[in-house]
Amino acid sequence: MRAFLNWLAAAASLIGLFFTLYPYKDNLSPLQIFVLVVILIIFTGAAFFDIREARRRGVKKYSDNIAINKYMHSMLKKSGFCEICSRDASWISDDLIWPLLEEKSKNGEITFFVHKTTPDLQRLAKAGATIIEYGSFGFDPLTRFTIVNAGNATSSYVAIGSKKPNEPHVIEELDSSHPTYALALDLVRTIKKFK
Questions:
Q1: pLDDT tens, 140-164?
Q2: Is the same domain home to 10 and 94?
Q3: Are residues 48 and 112 located together in one domain of the fold?
Q4: In this structure, what DSSP letter does residue 27 have?
Q5: Any bridge partners for residue 131, and if so which?
């Protein structure tokens, strides 16, 4: 919504500027009309892509595990190397997600940070995934997140999931310029240091 309002304000400013500078008594020349059309096309395209990106990265709400797993599958399928911080990664056994995780494991594109490993995680480790247990450090972070495209500063972002009682599960995607992304990265690097 904020991106839409920003572009609406920008459009209002441009329209105001145009009518302030345009002399009403003169007709626009073909060159002026062409320039105006080009500016409108560029402006509209930029607004469309910016609003679409803001909606894609905005807060997403899911009411059941099926919807959450579809989101996770879509996110992981479109990504490169991922670092996933989870308590036990219980969601990985889903029929939709498991084959994708096996493929990413074989390609060396996934690392799990978990409180304690499970048989499913051990199977992924045999396929090539990196599994790092942090439970033995005596520390159990409340945060559950995935760093998508880890190591690629231009396209990396963090997806953070949270759930309050009697409310839908919420997932928020924050790009690498957001302070929360930096905190997630610091947590992952700290766990790696102590493994």
A1: 777 789 999 988 878 889 988 877 7
A2: no
A3: no
A4: P
A5: 112
Q: Are residues 66 and 106 in the same domain?
A: yes
Calpha distance 65→111 (Å, rounded): 22
Residues 46 and 90 grouped into a single domain: no
CA distances from 88 to 53, 92, 119, 142, 151 (A): 31, 9, 10, 12, 24
Q: Which amino acid is residue 193, in one-letter code? A: K
What are the DSSP calls for 71-111, one per residue?
HHHHHHHT-SSEEEEESS-GGGGSTTTHHHHHHHHHTT-EE
Q: What pTM was estimated for this model as a whole?
A: 0.70
Q: Could you give the CA distance from residue 153 to residue 139 in angstroms, rounded to a whole number?
A: 28
Q: What is the pLDDT of residues 157-194, one digit of tens each?
A: 998 887 777 778 888 888 888 899 999 999 888 888 87
Which DSSP helix (H) or strand (E) runs through 133? strand 130-133
Domain carrying residue 21: 2-57
**Do 36 and 75 share a structural domain?**
no
Q: How many domains does the chain have?
A: 2
CA dist., res. 17 & res. 19, Å (int): 6
Burial class (CB in 10 A: 0-12, 13-18, 19+), 171: buried
Q: How far apart are CA 181 and CA 187, in angstroms?
A: 10
